[in-house]
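Hi V.,

You were right to ask for the full record rather than a summary. Here it is.
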Amino acid sequence: MRGLLSLAVLVLVSGVVLAGNIDILAIRSAEYLMELSRNAVTDCADGVTYNPAGLVFMNDGIHLNFSGQYIGKDYTISGTFLGATEETEVSTTKPTTFIPNFYAVYKTGKLAAFGAFTVPAGGGSVDYSEGLFIMPLLQTGIVQAQYGPGHVALLNEGSMEGTSFYMRGTTGIAYAFNETFSGAVSGRFTTAHRNYKGEGSFTVVDMATGQPVGTASAELDVDRAATGMSAVISVDYKPSDAINLAARYETATALDFEATANVVSSWDAVLPYLADGAMQRRDLPAVAAIGVEMAINDRFRLGGSANYYFLEQADQGEDDGINDAYGDGWEANISGRYQFNEAIAGALGYSYSNYGGNDSTYTDLEYNINAGLLSGGVNWQATNVMDFTLAGGATFFDKGNGVGIYTGETFDKKVFFVAIGANASF
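Predicted structure:
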Protein backbone atom coordinates (compact mmCIF):
# COMPACT_ATOMS: atom_id res chain seq x y z
CA MET A 1 0.00 0.00 0.00
CA ARG A 2 2.95 2.37 0.55
CA GLY A 3 3.80 2.02 -3.14
CA LEU A 4 0.22 2.94 -3.96
CA LEU A 5 0.41 6.01 -1.77
CA SER A 6 3.66 7.22 -3.29
CA LEU A 7 1.94 7.19 -6.69
CA ALA A 8 -1.35 8.58 -5.42
CA VAL A 9 0.33 11.68 -4.04
CA LEU A 10 1.31 12.67 -7.56
CA VAL A 11 -2.27 13.36 -8.55
CA LEU A 12 -2.30 16.23 -6.10
CA VAL A 13 1.07 17.76 -6.95
CA SER A 14 0.48 17.73 -10.69
CA GLY A 15 -0.79 20.69 -12.66
CA VAL A 16 -3.90 22.12 -14.24
CA VAL A 17 -3.33 22.34 -17.97
CA LEU A 18 -5.54 24.18 -20.44
CA ALA A 19 -3.67 24.61 -23.72
CA GLY A 20 -0.16 24.62 -25.12
CA ASN A 21 2.37 22.03 -24.02
CA ILE A 22 2.56 20.68 -20.46
CA ASP A 23 1.99 23.80 -18.30
CA ILE A 24 2.45 26.25 -21.20
CA LEU A 25 -0.52 28.30 -22.39
CA ALA A 26 0.19 29.07 -26.05
CA ILE A 27 -2.74 31.44 -26.69
CA ARG A 28 -1.41 34.80 -25.49
CA SER A 29 -3.28 37.17 -27.81
CA ALA A 30 -6.54 37.38 -29.73
CA GLU A 31 -4.44 37.59 -32.91
CA TYR A 32 -2.89 34.20 -32.14
CA LEU A 33 -6.30 32.59 -31.72
CA MET A 34 -7.33 34.19 -35.02
CA GLU A 35 -4.36 32.91 -37.06
CA LEU A 36 -2.50 30.36 -34.85
CA SER A 37 0.72 30.74 -36.87
CA ARG A 38 2.40 33.81 -35.33
CA ASN A 39 6.08 32.86 -35.07
CA ALA A 40 6.97 35.11 -38.05
CA VAL A 41 4.61 38.02 -37.30
CA THR A 42 5.99 41.53 -38.00
CA ASP A 43 2.89 43.75 -37.92
CA CYS A 44 1.58 43.51 -34.34
CA ALA A 45 2.88 44.09 -30.82
CA ASP A 46 2.09 40.50 -29.79
CA GLY A 47 5.34 39.75 -31.66
CA VAL A 48 6.95 40.47 -28.26
CA THR A 49 6.09 36.89 -27.33
CA TYR A 50 6.03 35.20 -30.78
CA ASN A 51 8.73 36.98 -32.84
CA PRO A 52 10.64 39.68 -30.90
CA ALA A 53 13.22 40.19 -33.66
CA GLY A 54 10.46 41.02 -36.15
CA LEU A 55 9.36 44.08 -34.16
CA VAL A 56 11.99 46.20 -35.96
CA PHE A 57 9.93 45.92 -39.17
CA MET A 58 7.00 47.77 -37.61
CA ASN A 59 6.45 51.48 -38.30
CA ASP A 60 8.22 53.98 -36.08
CA GLY A 61 6.20 54.91 -33.02
CA ILE A 62 4.43 53.31 -30.06
CA HIS A 63 2.44 50.12 -30.54
CA LEU A 64 0.13 48.63 -27.89
CA ASN A 65 -1.77 45.35 -27.84
CA PHE A 66 -4.25 44.12 -25.25
CA SER A 67 -6.41 41.01 -25.25
CA GLY A 68 -8.66 39.05 -22.92
CA GLN A 69 -9.46 35.37 -23.28
CA TYR A 70 -12.34 33.14 -22.10
CA ILE A 71 -11.87 29.36 -21.87
CA GLY A 72 -14.79 26.95 -21.61
CA LYS A 73 -13.95 23.47 -20.35
CA ASP A 74 -15.59 20.06 -20.05
CA TYR A 75 -13.18 17.55 -18.53
CA THR A 76 -14.59 14.07 -17.90
CA ILE A 77 -13.12 10.97 -16.24
CA SER A 78 -14.95 7.65 -16.48
CA GLY A 79 -14.16 4.92 -13.98
CA THR A 80 -15.32 2.88 -11.00
CA PHE A 81 -14.98 4.04 -7.42
CA LEU A 82 -13.42 1.64 -4.92
CA GLY A 83 -16.15 -0.68 -3.64
CA ALA A 84 -18.56 0.14 -6.46
CA THR A 85 -19.61 -2.20 -9.26
CA GLU A 86 -20.89 0.25 -11.86
CA GLU A 87 -18.85 2.68 -13.91
CA THR A 88 -19.55 6.35 -13.33
CA GLU A 89 -18.27 9.75 -14.47
CA VAL A 90 -16.77 12.69 -12.63
CA SER A 91 -16.41 15.98 -14.45
CA THR A 92 -15.56 19.65 -14.22
CA THR A 93 -17.01 22.41 -16.37
CA LYS A 94 -15.61 25.38 -14.45
CA PRO A 95 -14.62 27.99 -17.06
CA THR A 96 -11.70 30.38 -17.02
CA THR A 97 -13.51 33.67 -17.42
CA PHE A 98 -10.64 36.06 -18.12
CA ILE A 99 -6.96 35.74 -19.04
CA PRO A 100 -5.29 39.09 -19.87
CA ASN A 101 -2.20 39.78 -21.97
CA PHE A 102 -0.62 43.18 -22.69
CA TYR A 103 2.24 44.22 -25.02
CA ALA A 104 4.02 47.53 -25.64
CA VAL A 105 6.62 48.36 -28.32
CA TYR A 106 8.55 51.53 -29.03
CA LYS A 107 10.13 51.46 -32.49
CA THR A 108 12.58 54.08 -33.77
CA GLY A 109 14.93 53.60 -36.69
CA LYS A 110 16.74 50.28 -36.42
CA LEU A 111 15.81 49.82 -32.76
CA ALA A 112 12.73 48.47 -30.99
CA ALA A 113 12.32 48.36 -27.21
CA PHE A 114 9.51 46.25 -25.82
CA GLY A 115 7.78 44.98 -22.72
CA ALA A 116 4.88 42.70 -21.85
CA PHE A 117 2.65 41.26 -19.16
CA THR A 118 1.41 37.79 -20.06
CA VAL A 119 -0.12 34.64 -18.61
CA PRO A 120 2.29 32.05 -20.05
CA ALA A 121 0.99 28.93 -18.30
CA GLY A 122 -1.83 27.49 -16.23
CA GLY A 123 -4.58 30.04 -16.28
CA GLY A 124 -7.54 28.25 -14.75
CA SER A 125 -9.17 25.82 -12.36
CA VAL A 126 -10.74 22.39 -12.32
CA ASP A 127 -13.45 21.56 -9.76
CA TYR A 128 -14.57 17.95 -9.37
CA SER A 129 -17.57 18.32 -7.08
CA GLU A 130 -18.19 14.54 -7.05
CA GLY A 131 -14.66 13.77 -5.89
CA LEU A 132 -12.00 11.76 -7.71
CA PHE A 133 -11.44 8.02 -8.07
CA ILE A 134 -8.05 8.30 -6.38
CA MET A 135 -9.49 9.68 -3.13
CA PRO A 136 -10.74 6.40 -1.55
CA LEU A 137 -7.50 4.69 -2.55
CA LEU A 138 -5.54 7.40 -0.81
CA GLN A 139 -7.71 7.19 2.31
CA THR A 140 -7.50 3.39 2.35
CA GLY A 141 -3.76 3.64 2.97
CA ILE A 142 -4.43 5.68 6.09
CA VAL A 143 -7.26 3.39 7.20
CA GLN A 144 -5.09 0.28 6.93
CA ALA A 145 -2.45 1.93 9.10
CA GLN A 146 -5.17 2.42 11.75
CA TYR A 147 -7.37 -0.70 11.39
CA GLY A 148 -4.96 -3.14 9.80
CA PRO A 149 -4.88 -4.94 6.42
CA GLY A 150 -8.19 -5.98 4.94
CA HIS A 151 -9.92 -2.65 5.58
CA VAL A 152 -10.89 -0.11 2.92
CA ALA A 153 -12.27 3.42 2.88
CA LEU A 154 -15.32 3.94 0.66
CA LEU A 155 -16.09 7.49 -0.44
CA ASN A 156 -19.46 8.82 0.74
CA GLU A 157 -19.03 12.31 -0.69
CA GLY A 158 -16.12 14.50 -1.59
CA SER A 159 -14.69 17.18 -3.83
CA MET A 160 -11.34 18.20 -5.27
CA GLU A 161 -10.33 21.52 -6.82
CA GLY A 162 -7.05 22.58 -8.38
CA THR A 163 -6.01 26.03 -9.61
CA SER A 164 -2.91 27.04 -11.58
CA PHE A 165 -2.01 30.60 -12.59
CA TYR A 166 1.32 31.93 -13.88
CA MET A 167 2.15 35.60 -14.53
CA ARG A 168 5.15 36.94 -16.44
CA GLY A 169 6.83 40.25 -17.09
CA THR A 170 9.07 40.59 -20.16
CA THR A 171 11.43 43.33 -21.32
CA GLY A 172 13.90 43.41 -24.17
CA ILE A 173 15.38 45.07 -27.22
CA ALA A 174 15.48 44.28 -30.96
CA TYR A 175 17.91 45.63 -33.55
CA ALA A 176 17.92 45.62 -37.37
CA PHE A 177 21.43 44.82 -38.60
CA ASN A 178 20.33 45.65 -42.15
CA GLU A 179 17.14 45.77 -44.20
CA THR A 180 16.70 41.99 -44.16
CA PHE A 181 18.15 40.65 -40.89
CA SER A 182 17.44 41.46 -37.25
CA GLY A 183 17.89 40.02 -33.80
CA ALA A 184 16.45 40.45 -30.31
CA VAL A 185 17.19 39.52 -26.71
CA SER A 186 14.85 39.70 -23.75
CA GLY A 187 14.57 38.71 -20.11
CA ARG A 188 11.50 37.34 -18.37
CA PHE A 189 10.41 37.10 -14.72
CA THR A 190 7.74 34.53 -13.94
CA THR A 191 5.69 34.01 -10.80
CA ALA A 192 3.61 30.86 -10.45
CA HIS A 193 0.80 29.97 -8.07
CA ARG A 194 -1.02 26.69 -7.53
CA ASN A 195 -3.76 25.84 -5.06
CA TYR A 196 -5.31 22.52 -4.09
CA LYS A 197 -8.53 22.17 -2.11
CA GLY A 198 -10.29 18.93 -1.29
CA GLU A 199 -12.39 17.16 1.28
CA GLY A 200 -14.00 13.77 1.68
CA SER A 201 -16.01 11.66 4.08
CA PHE A 202 -15.55 7.89 4.10
CA THR A 203 -16.99 4.70 5.54
CA VAL A 204 -14.42 2.19 6.80
CA VAL A 205 -15.34 -1.37 5.82
CA ASP A 206 -13.87 -4.69 6.96
CA MET A 207 -13.49 -6.60 3.70
CA ALA A 208 -13.59 -9.97 5.49
CA THR A 209 -17.10 -9.38 6.80
CA GLY A 210 -18.31 -6.63 4.46
CA GLN A 211 -19.44 -4.67 7.50
CA PRO A 212 -18.70 -1.00 8.27
CA VAL A 213 -16.49 -0.54 11.31
CA GLY A 214 -16.04 3.24 11.41
CA THR A 215 -15.88 6.51 9.54
CA ALA A 216 -13.09 8.81 8.42
CA SER A 217 -12.71 12.28 6.93
CA ALA A 218 -9.98 14.27 5.20
CA GLU A 219 -9.46 17.89 4.21
CA LEU A 220 -6.86 19.66 2.09
CA ASP A 221 -6.11 23.34 1.42
CA VAL A 222 -2.58 24.06 0.21
CA ASP A 223 -1.02 26.94 -1.74
CA ARG A 224 2.22 26.51 -3.67
CA ALA A 225 4.25 29.35 -5.14
CA ALA A 226 7.47 29.82 -7.13
CA THR A 227 9.37 32.47 -9.08
CA GLY A 228 11.95 32.15 -11.83
CA MET A 229 13.92 33.95 -14.54
CA SER A 230 14.49 33.05 -18.20
CA ALA A 231 15.75 34.58 -21.45
CA VAL A 232 14.78 34.63 -25.14
CA ILE A 233 16.99 34.95 -28.23
CA SER A 234 15.26 35.71 -31.52
CA VAL A 235 16.30 36.27 -35.14
CA ASP A 236 14.33 37.36 -38.21
CA TYR A 237 15.23 37.17 -41.90
CA LYS A 238 13.19 38.99 -44.56
CA PRO A 239 14.59 38.00 -47.97
CA SER A 240 11.81 39.84 -49.82
CA ASP A 241 8.67 41.85 -49.21
CA ALA A 242 6.64 38.68 -49.71
CA ILE A 243 8.49 36.26 -47.40
CA ASN A 244 9.54 36.46 -43.76
CA LEU A 245 11.40 33.80 -41.76
CA ALA A 246 11.94 33.79 -38.00
CA ALA A 247 13.31 31.65 -35.19
CA ARG A 248 13.59 31.98 -31.43
CA TYR A 249 14.89 30.04 -28.44
CA GLU A 250 13.48 30.36 -24.92
CA THR A 251 15.55 29.08 -22.02
CA ALA A 252 13.90 26.96 -19.34
CA THR A 253 12.30 28.76 -16.39
CA ALA A 254 13.51 27.21 -13.13
CA LEU A 255 10.65 27.06 -10.61
CA ASP A 256 11.01 25.74 -7.05
CA PHE A 257 7.52 25.54 -5.58
CA GLU A 258 7.15 26.05 -1.83
CA ALA A 259 3.99 24.83 -0.13
CA THR A 260 1.96 26.77 2.40
CA ALA A 261 -0.42 24.36 4.11
CA ASN A 262 -3.56 26.12 5.29
CA VAL A 263 -5.21 22.78 6.11
CA VAL A 264 -3.94 19.23 5.62
CA SER A 265 -6.10 17.01 7.83
CA SER A 266 -5.53 13.24 7.85
CA TRP A 267 -3.61 13.20 4.56
CA ASP A 268 -0.52 14.98 5.88
CA ALA A 269 1.26 11.68 6.58
CA VAL A 270 1.06 10.54 2.94
CA LEU A 271 1.29 13.87 1.07
CA PRO A 272 4.84 15.03 1.86
CA TYR A 273 5.04 17.50 -1.05
CA LEU A 274 2.04 19.37 0.31
CA ALA A 275 3.34 19.67 3.87
CA ASP A 276 3.92 23.21 5.07
CA GLY A 277 7.26 24.45 3.79
CA ALA A 278 7.82 21.49 1.43
CA MET A 279 9.67 22.21 -1.83
CA GLN A 280 9.22 20.67 -5.28
CA ARG A 281 10.86 21.56 -8.59
CA ARG A 282 8.71 21.90 -11.73
CA ASP A 283 10.34 23.98 -14.47
CA LEU A 284 8.74 25.42 -17.56
CA PRO A 285 10.73 23.78 -20.37
CA ALA A 286 12.99 25.41 -22.93
CA VAL A 287 11.32 26.06 -26.29
CA ALA A 288 12.68 26.24 -29.84
CA ALA A 289 10.39 27.86 -32.42
CA ILE A 290 10.42 28.63 -36.14
CA GLY A 291 7.96 30.40 -38.41
CA VAL A 292 7.34 31.61 -41.94
CA GLU A 293 4.89 34.10 -43.46
CA MET A 294 4.29 34.37 -47.20
CA ALA A 295 2.24 37.03 -48.97
CA ILE A 296 0.53 35.35 -51.91
CA ASN A 297 -0.80 38.72 -53.10
CA ASP A 298 -1.87 42.07 -51.65
CA ARG A 299 -4.85 40.48 -49.91
CA PHE A 300 -3.88 36.93 -48.95
CA ARG A 301 -1.05 35.58 -46.80
CA LEU A 302 -0.15 32.14 -45.47
CA GLY A 303 1.70 31.23 -42.29
CA GLY A 304 3.39 28.18 -40.86
CA SER A 305 4.95 27.68 -37.41
CA ALA A 306 6.41 24.92 -35.28
CA ASN A 307 7.41 24.76 -31.61
CA TYR A 308 9.52 22.12 -29.89
CA TYR A 309 9.35 21.71 -26.09
CA PHE A 310 12.37 20.23 -24.30
CA LEU A 311 10.36 18.48 -21.59
CA GLU A 312 12.86 15.72 -20.94
CA GLN A 313 15.54 18.28 -20.08
CA ALA A 314 13.30 20.30 -17.77
CA ASP A 315 14.09 19.74 -14.08
CA GLN A 316 11.01 18.29 -12.37
CA GLY A 317 12.63 17.27 -9.08
CA GLU A 318 14.19 14.04 -7.88
CA ASP A 319 10.93 12.28 -6.96
CA ASP A 320 8.59 13.52 -9.65
CA GLY A 321 7.60 10.02 -10.81
CA ILE A 322 4.97 10.70 -13.44
CA ASN A 323 6.74 13.77 -14.86
CA ASP A 324 9.76 11.61 -15.70
CA ALA A 325 7.54 9.64 -18.09
CA TYR A 326 7.00 12.64 -20.38
CA GLY A 327 8.84 12.79 -23.68
CA ASP A 328 9.61 16.02 -25.52
CA GLY A 329 6.55 17.75 -26.97
CA TRP A 330 5.89 19.64 -30.18
CA GLU A 331 3.20 21.49 -32.08
CA ALA A 332 2.71 22.57 -35.69
CA ASN A 333 0.48 25.44 -36.88
CA ILE A 334 -0.80 26.69 -40.22
CA SER A 335 -2.94 29.74 -41.01
CA GLY A 336 -4.38 31.83 -43.79
CA ARG A 337 -5.42 35.48 -43.61
CA TYR A 338 -7.48 37.39 -46.19
CA GLN A 339 -8.00 41.16 -46.38
CA PHE A 340 -11.56 41.65 -47.59
CA ASN A 341 -11.28 45.44 -47.78
CA GLU A 342 -9.37 48.26 -46.11
CA ALA A 343 -11.21 47.74 -42.81
CA ILE A 344 -11.99 44.00 -42.50
CA ALA A 345 -9.72 40.94 -42.50
CA GLY A 346 -10.50 37.33 -41.67
CA ALA A 347 -8.35 34.32 -40.88
CA LEU A 348 -8.45 30.59 -40.16
CA GLY A 349 -5.84 28.44 -38.46
CA TYR A 350 -5.17 24.88 -37.39
CA SER A 351 -2.73 23.57 -34.81
CA TYR A 352 -1.81 20.06 -33.71
CA SER A 353 -0.10 19.51 -30.35
CA ASN A 354 1.76 16.45 -29.15
CA TYR A 355 2.14 17.05 -25.41
CA GLY A 356 4.77 14.39 -24.83
CA GLY A 357 2.43 12.50 -22.52
CA ASN A 358 1.28 8.88 -22.60
CA ASP A 359 -0.86 6.52 -20.56
CA SER A 360 1.82 6.52 -17.82
CA THR A 361 1.38 10.28 -17.32
CA TYR A 362 -2.42 10.45 -17.07
CA THR A 363 -3.72 11.09 -13.55
CA ASP A 364 -7.00 12.31 -12.11
CA LEU A 365 -5.85 15.95 -12.14
CA GLU A 366 -3.47 15.99 -15.09
CA TYR A 367 -4.08 14.30 -18.40
CA ASN A 368 -2.25 15.96 -21.27
CA ILE A 369 -3.88 14.30 -24.27
CA ASN A 370 -2.77 15.11 -27.82
CA ALA A 371 -5.13 17.48 -29.57
CA GLY A 372 -5.93 19.57 -32.63
CA LEU A 373 -7.13 23.18 -32.41
CA LEU A 374 -9.24 24.82 -35.13
CA SER A 375 -9.79 28.55 -34.84
CA GLY A 376 -10.56 31.72 -36.74
CA GLY A 377 -11.48 35.34 -36.35
CA VAL A 378 -11.97 38.79 -37.82
CA ASN A 379 -10.01 42.03 -37.51
CA TRP A 380 -11.63 45.47 -37.85
CA GLN A 381 -9.50 48.53 -38.59
CA ALA A 382 -11.74 51.04 -36.81
CA THR A 383 -9.53 54.13 -37.24
CA ASN A 384 -6.05 55.00 -38.44
CA VAL A 385 -4.69 54.20 -34.98
CA MET A 386 -7.07 51.54 -33.58
CA ASP A 387 -8.10 48.07 -34.66
CA PHE A 388 -9.98 45.26 -32.92
CA THR A 389 -9.87 41.47 -33.16
CA LEU A 390 -12.50 38.88 -32.26
CA ALA A 391 -11.53 35.20 -32.42
CA GLY A 392 -12.73 31.80 -31.31
CA GLY A 393 -11.64 28.20 -31.50
CA ALA A 394 -12.30 24.63 -30.35
CA THR A 395 -9.87 21.89 -29.36
CA PHE A 396 -10.37 18.26 -30.35
CA PHE A 397 -8.63 15.85 -27.97
CA ASP A 398 -7.79 12.19 -28.31
CA LYS A 399 -9.07 9.99 -25.50
CA GLY A 400 -6.67 8.62 -22.89
CA ASN A 401 -6.70 5.45 -20.82
CA GLY A 402 -5.12 5.10 -17.40
CA VAL A 403 -2.66 2.45 -16.23
CA GLY A 404 -1.41 1.33 -12.84
CA ILE A 405 -3.63 2.69 -10.09
CA TYR A 406 -5.63 4.49 -12.81
CA THR A 407 -6.41 1.30 -14.76
CA GLY A 408 -10.01 1.32 -15.90
CA GLU A 409 -10.21 5.11 -16.09
CA THR A 410 -10.86 6.92 -19.37
CA PHE A 411 -9.91 10.59 -19.74
CA ASP A 412 -11.66 13.00 -22.10
CA LYS A 413 -11.60 16.77 -22.68
CA LYS A 414 -13.56 19.37 -24.59
CA VAL A 415 -12.27 22.97 -24.64
CA PHE A 416 -13.29 26.10 -26.53
CA PHE A 417 -11.79 29.59 -26.56
CA VAL A 418 -13.07 33.11 -27.19
CA ALA A 419 -10.75 36.14 -27.26
CA ILE A 420 -11.12 39.83 -27.97
CA GLY A 421 -8.18 42.16 -28.56
CA ALA A 422 -7.33 45.77 -29.37
CA ASN A 423 -4.30 47.37 -31.04
CA ALA A 424 -3.25 51.01 -30.93
CA SER A 425 -0.38 52.64 -32.84
CA PHE A 426 0.81 56.24 -32.40
